[in-house]
Amino acid sequence: METRGRLPGTMVVATQHFHEPDDAHLRTDTALETGVVNYVRYRELLIVAALNLAGGCGPTMKEYRPRHPPFQFLTESPAILVGFIEAVDKAGWTHSSRYDQPVQLCRIRVKVENVLQGQVTSNEVNIYCYLMRGSATGLPRMYFDPGDRYIFYLRRELGEWRTACDVYEYCVDRVLTGRHPAFKRNPNRPISDDILEILFTRGESVSDGVMVDAVAGYRNDGSRWRNQRAEAYSELLQRMAKVETAPVRAEACDQLKNLGKPCE
Asked: CA–CA distance from 84 to each of 9, 17, 183, 215, 220 (Å)?
């Protein structure tokens, strides 16, 4: 033990000299190599985490094959609801698909306003669907913004709610007529008549201009339902012609004229 030159009040530390074994350089090389491998793996994990944050993380779902669903296909969906969109998030990678453009799985956060069919007990749900990325070609495509309101036709997949079909806007119906808190499902009539009522009757906080657009079918695809249920649609228009404001009454009468029906 060496004590020479010790300052007063300092601790005496024993030192011992060791001879480095011949294979020490091998252990040093191995340690360096392990450190490099660990660093590369750590960097890869960081990249994956960053990509997950950027691209979203959701269930593994495949896009449905392109199809124009018949009315029965939509009306027989396990659940049909009117939902107010609160958020739209990416839930998967953009990838090539059976459609003519790349698609991406998205998660739509929806506030449930009306349940037209099935059992939906939550006030808010996540709905998954594939949206098309890239330039617009062919049929009109689904596109969602927070604040929009839609009728969603849903099925279950991997324990989540999923649109009955993907990409194209015929998979959903845009609702322009506002919120309908007083709406009650009528089990004695076809579900298509309930859909008509949501699409074409005034709800809360809707201007006359928007109602005219809704009745005329300018900004939604309600025409498929009014063509399917022409008689029920005519009765709805005749009711509107009696109780609505002047601009909406005028549009309702124009639509009735096109159908060859009297306005009053």
From this structure: 77, 76, 15, 20, 16
Domain endpoint, select from 152, 174, 196: 174
Same domain, 43 and 67: no
CA 233 to each of CA 81, 224, 259: distance values in angstroms, whole numbers, following the listed order: 20, 11, 10
Q: What pLDDT does residue 40 have?
A: 42
Residues 169 and 185 in one domain: no
In a domain, 96, yes or no: yes
What pLDDT digit, counting tens, does each position of 36-59 carry?
A: 445 445 454 443 334 344 444 556
Contact by Cβ (8 Å): 163, 153: yes
**Residue 87 belongs to domain with CATH number:** 2.40.50
CB 199 within 8 A of CB 228: no
Q: Are residues 32 and 93 in the same domain?
A: no
Question: How far from chain centre, in Å, is Cα 259?
Answer: 36
Nearest of 104, 84, 85 to residue 94 by alpha carbon? 104
Which residue range is the domain that position 32 belongs to? 26-55
Q: Enumerate the β-bridge partners of residue 240.
A: none
How many domains, in total, are found in the chain?
Answer: 3
Q: Beta strand 149-157 with 79-95: parallel, antiparallel or unpaired?
A: antiparallel
> Does 236 have pLDDT greater than 50?
yes
pLDDT band of residue 101 (cuts 50, 70, 90) is confident
